[in-house]
Amino acid sequence: MSKNKLLSGPYLLFILCGTVIPLLAILYYALVDKNGSFTLRNIASVAEPVHLKALGLSLLLAFICTVICLLLAFPLGLLLRKSGGKNKGFVIFMLILPMWMNFLLRTIAWKVLLQKTGVINSILAALGISNGINIINTPYAVVLGMVYDFLPFMILPIYNVMIKIDNSLVEAAYDLGASSFKVMKDVLLPLSMPGIISGITMTFVPAMTTFAISQILGGGNIYLIGNIIELEFLHGGSRNVGSGLSMVMMVFILISMALLNKFDKNGEGTVI
Fold first, then answer.
1. Dist CA 220 CA 130 (whole Å)
2. Residue 21 belongs to what H/E stretch?
3. What is the rounded distance in angstroms from the CA atom of residue 6 to the CA atom of residue 28?
4. What separation in angstroms does the CA of 260 have from each of 215, 225, 269?
5. d(C-alpha 19, C-alpha 196), whole Å
6. pTM of the shown model
7. How far apart are CA 213 and CA 62, in angstroms?
8. What domains does the chain contain, in order, with CATH numbers?
9. Taking the CA atoms of the chain, what radius of gyration do you get in angstroms?
């Protein structure tokens, strides 16, 4: 056995146990009923009104979250590209710092902030604003939580691509009489596309499949497809139906990965 094969052994074992076997198990349960007979009903159950509504809401909120993250991340990427080295390091550190905290704790913190008697409304009441904000347990709170949790996944790939753009290309565009808007539209935006596509994929997919954010900030009133799958697996539902819905979600993930491979063939938007 060669040295390379020996070194790759733990990695292959991890992929086998952590990815391949679970996926095969989900595929098996998705294609059989409780008696072990072949069926496509589990996958077709996505067309049921409750499941279809949850899927549609998941796609809508994930789309809104992705658009907001992109609108925030692209200008910030431009600013970071133009700023000095010290400022870059500090801003990136501040973006990564919240990710060191547990995902659930960060989401619960937003629940504390947004409650009717929470920190934000208490501050507004002290300032004489009695109405305050009342978005907890609504889709607005869910989108806010998504944007907060997934914004770094949009910023980092865009920033990673922008810092690799050759300044001579930008300077040449200015020398040829291009305006700042035209430089951004015709030079920076196309060259940043691998990072943008990577950021969209890294934001849209987890936003579409999340269930913890909608459960905590939605107060059990907002059911996304992730919540439906969780109920099927963990709360007395059918793991066969849950597996079927999971396979449907895999289709969206595969489409996202295909788009990423098409627009970022060289892995320029990768942040790892």
1. 27
2. helix 21-30
3. 31
4. 29, 23, 9
5. 27
6. 0.89
7. 12
8. 46-263 (1.10.3720.10)
9. 22
The encoded tokens of residue 81 equal 């590209």
d(CA 23, CA 212): 22
Q: What is the pLDDT of residues 195-238, one digit of tens each?
A: 999 999 999 999 999 999 999 999 888 999 999 999 999 887 78
Quick count: other Cβ atoms within 10 Å of Cβ 63?
13
Place of tokens 């504390």: 112
Q: Can you tell me the distance from the alpha carbon of 25 to that of 20, in angstroms, rounded to the nearest whole number?
A: 9
Integer Cα distance of 63 and 65 in angstroms:
5
Alpha-carbon span 63 to 66, nearest angstrom: 5
Per residue in 38-58, pLDDT (tens digit) is 999 999 999 999 999 999 999
Report the chain's terminal Cα–Cα distance, integer Å. Answer: 30
H or E element, residue 255: helix 239-263
214 vs 87, 140, 192, 230, CA distance in Å? 34, 10, 31, 12
Q: Residue 191: what residue type?
A: L
The gap from C-alpha 76 to its chain's centroid, in whole angstroms, comes to: 18
